[in-house]
Amino acid sequence: MISQTERVRIKGWNGYQQGSYIEKQGYVYITETGTVYHKSYQCTHLKLAIRAGNVSDVADLRNEYQGKYYPCEKCKAKSASGMIYYTVSGDRYHASLGCSGLKRNIRAVKLSEVGGRGACSRCGR
Ligand SMILES: [Zn+2]
Ligand SMILES: [Zn+2]
User: Fold this and answer.
1) Which of 27, 72, 87, 104 lies at a CB distance of 3.0 to 4.6 Å from 92, suitable for a disulfide?
2) What is the pLDDT of residues 35-55, one digit of tens each?
3) How far apart are CA 102 and CA 15, in angstroms?
4) 30 C-alpha vs ligand 1 centroid, how far in Å?
């Protein structure tokens, strides 16, 4: 589950990013393997897919296979300072939530592009 601390961190990050990726109007969010779409990027179901953390903690992070995280080359995560993003099943961490390496896991799409996915029971009403 997402801790209160993490929520506060993510909220602060929202303001910093000024709606570039996560505040697109008219878009919903899907995961590659998910069967539902999400209206809210903040949906806790969606948050299960991507975690946010501090780069100073990355050495202690382990993915679900007990592997370490390595910096993503695409978003130059090696020189990241502050927030980083990763997935529990991945082996890379990212400096940008908009990185294509992460977008493989969560994508912002138009509602007309969700395919056979149904609305998330939590945020889709
Ligand atoms: Zn949802
Ligand atoms: Zn990346």
Assistant:
1) 72
2) 889 998 778 777 656 788 999
3) 20
4) 9
Residue 122 Cα to ligand 2 middle (Å): 28
- Which ligand is in closest contact with the Cα of 75? 2
Ligand with smallest separation from the Cα of 98: 2
Secondary structure class of 12 (helix, strand, coil): helix
Sequence spans of domains, the chain:
4-119
Calculate the CA 57 to chain-centre distance: 17
Residue 83 near residue 53 (C-beta atoms within 8 A):
yes
Which residues, other chains included, contact 88 with Cβ-Cβ below 8 Å and sequence gap of 6+? 48, 49, 51, 63, 64
Could you give phi then psi for residue 84, rounded to 5 degrees? -130, 160
Residue 6 buriedness (CB in 10 A; 0-12 / 13-18 / 19+) = middle
- Average pLDDT of the chain? 78
